[in-house]
Amino acid sequence: MEVFKCRICGDPYVGGSKPSHCPFCGAPSNYIILAHDWQEPEAFELTEVSKADLEHALMLENNNALFYTCAYEVSMNVELSAMFKALAKVEAEHASVIRKLLGLPKPIEEEDNRGRCQALDQGNIKEAHDREKRAIDFYSRAAEVAIEPRIKEVFTALVEIEKTHIELNNKYLGTFSGMQNPII
């Protein structure tokens, strides 16, 4: 058994081999290292551009985590429900990483932390696809303009992670294309 750490979220993983993706934030294996090679990221000052991009990213990730929580709760399909629940956890982990970069405390949990989603899976799959596409576009731009190496690395990893979410959503998108349902 080995102990690994993710360079993006910093969370440890214990296993016989390095996972293909971080089980917490979804970062690909190239961001996962043996724990004994881990070094805490050095403190740095954020530029105003990076601070604004991180604040926008925090809002985006919080909203996506809430959306996926709602989609998980309303789904009648076991596989889709599991996917939505897993994506809610990953998006919440992204928000946690961004809060740390901004030096913000963990928020107090609200009683009703469910976001808005649609009543049926087909609408939520389409919405999930659109949300992930917007995230990829935003993170790609933010990675290009970031001058801090740590911020550039996090935004680059988020692009890679969100692309895996698109692949997952695409698995179901064709099944439901063209269908509409009401927002709840």
From TrEMBL:
Q: What name does the UniProt record give this protein?
A: Ferritin
Q: Name one GO molecular function term.
A: oxidoreductase activity
InterPro entries recorded: Ferritin-like (IPR012347), Ferritin-like_SF (IPR009078), Rr_diiron-bd_dom (IPR003251)
Alphabetical list of CDD domains matching this protein: Ferritin_like_AB (cd01045), rubredoxin_like (cd00350)
Source species, please?
A: Candidatus Aquicultor secundus
- Limits of the Rubrerythrin diiron-binding domain: 54-168
Q: Classify the source by domain of life.
A: Bacteria
What Pfam families does this protein map onto? Rubrerythrin
